[in-house]
Amino acid sequence: MTARDRTLALTVVVLWGLNFLALRAGLDHFPPFFFAALRFLVIAVPVVLFVPRPDVPTRWLVGYGLGFGVGQFAFLFWAMDAGMPTGLASVVLQSSAPFTVVLGALLLREHLSAAQVAGLCVAVAGMALIGWDRAHHAALVPVLLTLLAGLSWAFGNLANRQAASSQPMRLMLWMCVVPPLPMLAVSVAVEGPRAIGRSVTTAFDAWPALAGLAYTAVIATIVGSGLWTALMSRYPASSVAPFSLLVPVVGIAAAWAVLGERPSLLALAGAVVVIVGATAATPRTRRHIAPAPVGAGPALGDVVQVGVGSGAVPDSPRGNQ
Q1: Which of 11, 38, 64, 273 has the greatest number of CB atoms lying within 10 Å of its CB?
Q2: Whole-angstrom Cα distance, residue 190 to residue 170?
Q3: Quick one: angle between helices 32-50 and 168-175, nearest 10?
Q4: Of the ranges 30-39, 79-88, 199-208, 286-295, which is most confident?
Q5: DSSP structural state of residue 204
Q6: Residue 241: which of 118, 99, 48 has the closest Cα?
Q7: pTM
Q8: How far, CA to CA in Å, does 43 sit from each of 18, 70, 221, 249, 256?
Q9: Closest to 281 (Cα-Cα) out of 61, 169, 124
Q10: Is residue 170 within a helix (H) or strand (E), and if so which, with residue range?
Q11: CA 122, CA 37: separation in Å to the nearest integer?
């Protein structure tokens, strides 16, 4: 990855880490499945009206929306509503990173270097250390639901990767068109029209919930997921996914500062292990000027990336041009 794209990945980490506070505020007022539908509905309506559809196969667009949108947030919101602590949710959800790397290797035949495997093992060990330290705060069912959210996110990542869109922002925005109808159907069937209506009619008396909805829809989804989609379109899933392991560091710190969820020294030590492992799991690259075709002048911004110490040349970074 280039230094710029590493910075963008870390920006997504901060935005998504703070997003757990917004989700907590929204779930304190809205039913979980209805809140998941609202998150995407406020984006889907203007997208359908004003944003051209990306030129990608429908199956990958729908797969991206079902995995990243429906599966991830249905299970995550269900888990948090069932008692999953905010900080612990931010940790367990990052199971999506090892899920993505393993599924990418199994289904897409993406190459994993020994350093990446070792780094992922270290990062997962740190995540397990944090989870083990805080597991007594949550029942088993919410933890399992959050793991299912991470697995759904991983399948969404692979569908995003397979879409290989040259218009990643359009792809991310149109992904938001997929979840609202399925989530509304689930909400009506499970939560009922009465609970939905009550949450809507009293929404303006609960401004933190509306602020949480605005943050998760605009900042976390449009900005954060937009950047993530762009990065996933430029690099193998195994290069991007490990960054998501840093989200719980921000999530735990934010939950500590705002919600009073104080992490122990063991949890903080686990966070450091996660950072070290995620850094080691991300392959380093250097940039070279690509040779111009015979008879042609140099093209500004034409670059190729060569893996350093990985023993393999990564996929062509067409998204960088």
Answers
A1: 64
A2: 32
A3: 130
A4: 30-39
A5: G
A6: 99
A7: 0.77
A8: 20, 14, 9, 28, 30
A9: 124
A10: helix 168-175
A11: 36
Residue 123 and residue 98: Cα distance in Å, rounded? 9
Based on C-alpha coordinates, what's the Rg of the chain?
20
What is the spatial distance between Cα 73 and Cα 127, in angstroms, rounded to a whole number?
20
Q: Which helix (H) or strand (E) holds 60?
A: helix 58-64
pLDDT on residue 200:
93
Tens of pLDDT, residue by residue over 244-275, are: 778 888 988 898 889 887 777 887 788 788 87
In this prediction, residues 183-195 reach a mean pLDDT of 96
Q: Is 194 exposed, middle or buried (0-12, 13-18, 19+ CB in 10 A)?
A: exposed
Which helix H or strand E contains 34, and what residues bound it? helix 32-50
Q: Is the pLDDT of residue 110 over 60?
A: yes
By the 8 A CB rule, do 174 and 69 touch? Answer: no
Helices 114-134 and 247-254: crossing angle in degrees, nearest 10, is: 20
pLDDT on residue 284? 53
Query: Taking Cα atoms as reference points, which of 122, 158, 153 lies closest to residue 237?
Result: 158
- Beta-carbon contacts of residue 228 (< 8 Å; ≥ 6 apart): 9, 12, 172, 240
Question: Which residues is 105 bridged to in the sheet?
Answer: none
Measured CA to CA, the distance from residue 83 to residue 139 in angstroms comes to 8
Q: What is the pLDDT of residues 129-180, one digit of tens each?
A: 877 876 766 677 888 899 899 999 999 989 988 998 888 889 989 999 999 9
Taking the C-alpha atoms of residue 305 and residue 14, their distance in angstroms, rounded to an integer, is 27
